[in-house]
Specification:
This protein is mainly beta and 208 residues long. The protein has one domain (2-20, 31-207): Porin (Beta Barrel). Helices cover 7% and strands 61% of the residues. It contains one helix and 15 strands; from the N terminus they run αβββββββββββββββ. The chain has one helix at residues 2-16, and strands spanning 33-43, 50-51, 55-59, 62-72, 77-84, 87-93, 97-104, 107-112, 122-140, 146-148, 151-163, 168-177, 180-185, 188-194, 198-207.
């Protein structure tokens, strides 16, 4: 699923590069404020590390409402902040116990738009940035406390807008986030969870 999402967006971006400024559409560029709204799915990688002396951790996917706010400094450069309602992940710790946690993943990216300022209907972009993940409401099925430390990590992004008119567009985007968290169980250090998800979002974009 992760590879499929990445492949689809990469293919869309490559195809967009073939669209020239002669295409009759709507020039997006410098000075534009925009928001993107949709549903995002967080897909953790398959191997999420070990805790409690070697028990393997498996973190499940979750989907939630998400939105972004952005600004284009120039035709080709912009910045975007991703926010969302809390994602709620169930997890399993080997054959020992299960649990759950919520997290918020505010993410800031600097973006490059190769066709920015042209009249292309298809506007691909890529970005790099930083993610801060705040964990909350951690619970174990066992009668023990569990705590996940908040995380800072690097981010890579690919996306594409399919322009409808001067203001509206369809949007698809994918982020890779480096999210690692130190874990405490019963107040004692228990190991590290490596979530490192791909986040896939589909929705609409509105330019102000």
């Amino acid at each position: 699923m992760r590879k499929s999402a990445l492949t689809t967006l990469i293919a869309a971006s490559v195809a967009a590069a073939a669209v020239t400024a002669s295409t009759q559409a709507f020039a997006y560029g410098a000075g534009d404020f925009f928001t993107r709204v949709g549903v995002a799915k967080v897909e953790p990688k398959s191997d999420n590390g070990t805790i409690l002396g070697g028990a393997e951790v498996e973190v499940e996917d979750d989907s939630a409402f998400a939105f972004t706010l952005g600004y284009r400094f120039t035709d080709k450069l912009g910045v975007e902040l991703l926010a969302a309602e809390p994602f709620d992940h169930d997890f399993q710790v080997g054959n020992i116990t299960g649990g759950s946690t919520e997290h918020l993943p505010p993410t800031l990216t600097l973006q490059y738009y190769p066709l920015g300022g042209t009249d292309a209907y298809v506007q691909p972009y890529m970005g790099v940035g930083v993610n801060y993940t705040k964990f909350s409401d951690e619970e174990l099925d066992a009668d023990l406390s569990v705590e996940l430390d908040d995380s800072w990590g690097a981010v890579g992004q690919l996306g594409v807008d399919l322009l409808i008119d001067d203001n509206w567009a369809l949007n698809g985007a994918v982020w890779y986030m480096d999210i690692d968290s130190d874990v405490k169980v019963g107040g004692a250090d228990a190991g590290k969870v490596e979530i490192d998800p791909v986040v896939v979002m589909g929705g609409i974009s509105y330019r102000f």
